[in-house]
Amino acid sequence: MQLEHIRQRLAALGAKTCHEDRVLRAWLQAQPLDAGARRRQAQDYLPKAIREELPALAADLEALARVHSEHPGADGSARLLVRLGDGQAVESVLLPRDGVCVSTQVGCAVGCTFCMTGRDGLLRQLSSGEIVAQVVLARARRPVKKVVFMGMGEPAHNLDNVLAAIDLLGSAGGIGHKNLVFSTVGDRRVFERLPQQAVKPALALSLHTSRAELRAQLLPKAPRLTPEELVELGEEYARSTGYPIQYQWTLLDGVNDSEAEMDGIVRLLSGKYAIMNLIPFNAVGGEDEAGEGAFRRPAWERARHLARYLHQRRILTKLRNSAGQDIDGGCGQLRARSLAEDPSSPQAPAPQAISGPALRRRQPRP
Fold first, then answer.
1. What are the catalytic residues?
2. Which one of 37, 78, 167, 307 has the minimum C-beta count within 10 Å?
3. DSSP-derived 3-state class of residue 147
């Protein structure tokens, strides 16, 4: 189900834009339709045909995505294994401080060598409705004020659906535009389309190295943009939106953690409207840590030294310790797990996103 299909379905029942927005806002907040300051009843503002359709619409929206299992982490995060309507699965991560990381594809075609998601390739795209449904599931569990498109998949490869989701979340969803973070390895289509959007998200660009030849090895199926070209495109977007670009750099021991690479960062980002996020590598399942060519996480003190090195050279740098590492929810650890891998985990009930004529109020959590 695409978001536009929901609007078309409501319009066919006689809904005006205000009616569509009211129904969508209720769904996006994981609340019944009578939620809100005025507590108006549906019969006071919704046409009869729409009121009669609400139970069927609610069932269809809930069927888009359901939480198959929830895996809480020690840091306050939680990995959600989400079952889609066709039986495929994706993963979302509830983040500390009111954020959620959502997936945009089942699998990924980029094949970053240090990431688990792309090991089985791309299975299918997510619809705009399925992307937004992950936010709804998160909001049924905790407040969500930030959405990062950093889960499974490359958002640039599903651009129409991702941008439709961003537009809705940044309008009816009430998420601040700079708190919608579009993460990509870099694609010229992104830099063409994002400036044209009514809702312009913040941008996170996967850099990982200052050397074009190494980047081609680490990101084998990414568009062949050199680091210099990527930063040039990012800087233009940053200046036009007023949001700094977040450059992502997965620290790989002995691969891209040298001072020569840090000097490359200084060369690329000096004077740029940018934040460098250094993210120590997170081990992914199934790898032989002692095997030849296996990636390793640098020592934390080494990572701190690199962050200080960049700070001293006037590069705004943040050393990120990925949330959810203990539950395989950190950067690079998400994957298209089979639902059968989780047979003992009970399926969590779907949220009552839109209620029927009785307009049941959501009960407070114990």
1. 91, 331
2. 37
3. strand
